[in-house]
Amino acid sequence: MGGTSLKKRILTALLISALFLAGCSSASTSETNEKEYKIGVLLSDTGLGDESFNDSAFRGLEKARDELGILFDYREAPDGDFESQLEELSKQDNDLVIGLGFSVQEALEKTAQNHPEQQYLLIDGVSELENVTSITFKEHEGSFLVGMVAAMTSKNQKLGIIGGADVPVIHRFEKGFEQGAKYINPDISISKEYANNFGDAALGKKIAENQIKDGVDFIYPAAGFTGVGAIQAAQEKHIFTAGVDSDQYFVAEKAVVTSMMKNIDVAVFNMAEKLVKDGSIGTEVYELGLAEDGVGLAAIRNFTLSNEQKSAIESAKEKLTSGKITINLN
């Protein structure tokens, strides 16, 4: 119940912000650009208010609206009917249609084949279609750093990770976190569980509570809004946790030590900027990691790292970027 009301408050704030600023941007756009570029976006399953993946993309579009003068519209598909929403966006004369998340890939590719002249952007998946540009992230690199921090903060040397689904993108979070923790302590224990749901905060809280009963004192939830419940449970039980995708410190200000920043907002803004500049975003496949500012760590809070620990994290960043540290994703 608490998780649902929290999501509603966040969604309301996002929509009020979007409506208030829309009028401010439209007037300036016509004065500065000959063409008003339009972007349509289909959000992933959990929609706005997830405090994570979707909200980050939405921030990127708001920035593109305010700074570049683009117009944007969005759709949600909580029932999983991605194809009809994408079809609707494709018929609206948008210069670019964005699909968020691995779960929309099949529907996006079907729609792209039906509209070969339309430009599409797929985030968190790779498509071979000529009119689809793909962006993926090296979540394992940022998660490696979170694993290091978790091992440094843990008293019990028992960590937990909660995945939203048993899929490759979540495996990258998992593998990076585990290997980062073991980089600090090879004998550390890590509990893993898949929620098979990205939108159930109550379920995330329940899973986290079970892990905490087993002695886990740091939880890393890569599970969208389900993870919000796990973060809240960590605070209630007085253990540490980390956010994902966005800086989730405000969700539990006494428990969140850092967040694995997956800079979807930056990627979306950069694509909008390329669209305005070139009239097209091309057909490249982008893979964004530490070197490309695609992932990284939020500020460290609630725990003071020693100078030695800070140096170890900075050294790991350099080694991950240069390839001296490689993460096994198998």
UniProtKB/TrEMBL annotation:
Q: Give the UniProt family note.
A: Belongs to the BMP lipoprotein family.
* Domain ABC transporter substrate-binding protein PnrA-like: from-to ranges: 41-324
A Pfam family annotated for this chain is: Bmp
Where would you find this protein in the cell?
A: Cell membrane
Secretion signal span: 1-27
Q: In which organism is this protein found?
A: Bacillus salacetis
Q: Which UniProt keywords apply?
A: Cell membrane, Lipoprotein, Membrane, Signal
Q: How does it sit in the membrane?
A: Lipid-anchor
Name a GO CC annotation attached to this entry: plasma membrane
The name on file for this protein is BMP family ABC transporter substrate-binding protein
Keyword Membrane in annotation = yes
